[in-house]
Design brief:
By secondary structure, the chain is an alpha+beta fold. It has three domains: 58 residues, no CATH class; 141 residues, Trna Endonuclease, Chain: A, domain 1 (3-Layer(aba) Sandwich); 166 residues, no CATH class. The protein is built from eleven helices and 20 strands.
Length: 404
């Protein structure tokens, strides 16, 4: 960290104090952490950027993440970037009322923001506590993930860990994961998420150097983009192979569909379709959309008109039984978000004539469930489906429609 306090309570900022004065102070005074009051050491080596470090291990939130050069330098780069933008940022502001220290504080258009540059995995509960602490004081946190945490699988496919996915934010009806690399001095904005499995998602990455980013914290609006052929083959592979791996979630899913005389290889192509709002679920699209169909439109509900509220009741039950898991995002606290995702799926089914909306928020299933179990016919059905409805599948917006 770059700030510490003296015994008098005076705050010392390394970047506002001359190096010579700091050397003299290091010999004559003690420095303390503003957050836990524990002793800190002023490190002025040549290899690592000048900083304060805790004298010994303490239960201090400020010490929860050992600050690497990658983190320290990134924090300074963002600080000076904001100064160049004509703003008046504060390095490592300490908020005594919630006993938290941020990386950078700044006021933009009369709103106070705190920027947190998170470079190492830390406890999820601590992240949530810090976020709720800021929000309780009307401080808007901007979490920026260290780029070194991002793991690409193939071109257009990202491995998204539970830790990394927390930093996804809904910004002007688009889900974005902002990350920053202090080595390249460049932002990486991940967007257009279409998760295929629990931890693998198709997405687009747009890069901007600090020099190119001219309006902070505004982020460009992106249209959701996805090569449908990639998605179609990914879902087909999931149905044919991945679903047979011996896991609890796979076993539970197979048990459910077999009870309804369905086969994983021959599930209709309107189950497992790509939607931008699917990022709200850890459970893959193929699974939760199957549950919507079998719970709401098959079995005792076959041929019946069903209300949206009843569909949500079934969905709630799946969540309670842990058949469907929601993705926990730091700044997504509104339960309506996942309800919109379910409505988004239903409205897509209406647009492709699988479901009819008899009256607002009342639905009747009209889709076909084939039981001939012929691979060639199944693949033709899938190919025709994605070709016919390509424009519909790519024209969805987050939170489109209303919750009745």
């Amino acid at each position: 960290m770059f700030t510490a306090k003296l015994e008098s309570g005076q705050i010392i900022n390394l970047w506002k104090t001359k190096r010579g004065n700091l050397k003299k102070m290091r010999q004559n005074v003690s420095f303390y952490c503003p957050e836990c009051n524990g002793k800190v050491i002023l490190k002025m080596g040549e290899k690592k950027i000048m900083h304060f470090a805790h004298e010994r291990e303490r239960g201090c939130q400020a010490n929860a993440e050992a600050e690497s050069s990658y983190h320290l330098e990134g924090k300074l780069q963002l600080y000076y970037y904001l100064k160049r933008m004509g703003l008046n940022p504060e390095l490592e502001p300490y908020f005594s009322f919630i006993k938290q220290r941020g990386d950078i504080g700044v006021v933009i258009n009369n709103q106070y923001y705190v920027i947190e540059y998170q470079c190492s995995p830390i406890n999820t509960d601590l992240l949530r506590k810090r976020t709720s602490g800021y929000l309780s004081r009307q401080i808007v946190p901007i979490w920026i993930l260290g780029f070194k945490n991002m793991k690409k699988v193939t071109r257009g496919m990202l491995r998204l860990s539970t830790f990394s996915s927390q930093f996804i934010v809904n910004y002007h009806e688009q889900y974005i994961l902002p990350s920053y690399c202090s080595i390249q001095q460049k932002f990486y904005f991940y967007h257009s998420f279409f998760p295929l499995t629990v931890n693998q998602t198709y997405c687009i990455c747009t890069t901007k150097s600090l020099k190119e980013l001219t309006d902070f914290p505004s982020i460009q609006k992106y249209n959701p983009m996805l090569p449908l052929d990639q998605w179609k083959h990914g879902i087909r592979k999931q149905k044919m192979y991945h679903i047979h791996y011996q896991t609890n979630i796979n076993n539970q899913f197979l048990k459910e569909i077999y009870l309804h005389k369905l086969h994983p290889h021959f599930l209709p192509p309107y189950i497992g379709i790509p939607l931008p709002s699917t990022i709200l679920f850890e459970t893959p699209s193929l699974f939760w959309q199957t549950f919507v169909i079998i719970d709401s439109f098959l079995g005792e509900n076959k041929g019946k008109i069903i209300s949206f509220q009843k569909i949500l009741d079934y969905f709630y039950r799946r969540i309670d039984n842990q058949h469907i898991k929601l993705r926990k995002l730091l700044l997504e606290t509104d339960e309506k978000s996942w309800k919109h995702a379910v409505l988004d799926y239903l409205q897509t089914l209406v647009k492709i004539n699988i479901v009819q909306e008899i009256k607002p928020n009342f639905f009747l299933f009209k889709g076909e469930i084939k039981t001939d179990f012929h691979y060639q016919n199944q693949h033709l059905w899938e190919d025709e489906f994605y070709k016919k409805y390509a424009k519909v599948l790519l024209a969805r917006k987050i939170n489109e429609g209303g919750i009745g």
